[in-house]
Amino acid sequence: MLLGGLWLSCAVTAFSNDGNDYWERLNRTHPEANLKTILNTKSKAKDQNVAGYRLSVKYNGQFRAISADNLLLLESQGIKKGQLKAYKYEILFISDGQELWLPMKTIMVEQLQLELEKDEPVLLYTSVLQNPEKEDYRQMTLMVEDFKVLVD
């Protein structure tokens, strides 16, 4: 019995440390930035250590079906058609007064709706998706990888 309790204690400690490591790793690979900085980033000049960006926004509470343009953009990034089914929605966030409809996995949409109320601040961990092949029209969006509720 004592041995089982000790094992459980070690497992819980290891799990909580893995959770902390997860956020530390995301913070290292996703520097905090504002929307203007992200939009002005050139894809070819991107730092190889940067996987995406952290962006503080407000949750608007609205969602819609993912746009055809964003589905094509996800596909152009190598996401297979079978995996695209996980991206059914875009969520509305507000950053510096600007509306952002960002694609997010359906399972995360449900979690976001449980954890946040309209106009609450949230820290998004995002990947920049862009299609550099179109020189006349550089399509870009931020795909939400994860989020952290900001406590006032």
Topology:
Elements: H1 2-29, H2 35-39, E1 53-65, H3 68-76, H4 81-84, E2 89-95, E3 98-104, H5 106-115, E4 121-131, E5 139-149
Antiparallel strand pairs: 1-2, 1-4, 2-3, 4-5
Protein model, in words:
- This protein has helices spanning about 1-30, 35-40, 70-75, 80-85, 105-115; strands at about 55-65, 90-95, 100-105, 120-130, 140-150.
- It has about 150 residues and is α+β, with helices and mostly antiparallel strands.
- A five-stranded antiparallel beta sheet has the order 3-2-1-4-5, sandwiched between helices.
- The chain has two domains: about 1-30; about 30-150, Nucleic acid-binding proteins (OB fold (Dihydrolipoamide Acetyltransferase, E2P)).
- The chain contains five helices and five strands, in the order H-H-E-H-H-E-E-H-E-E.
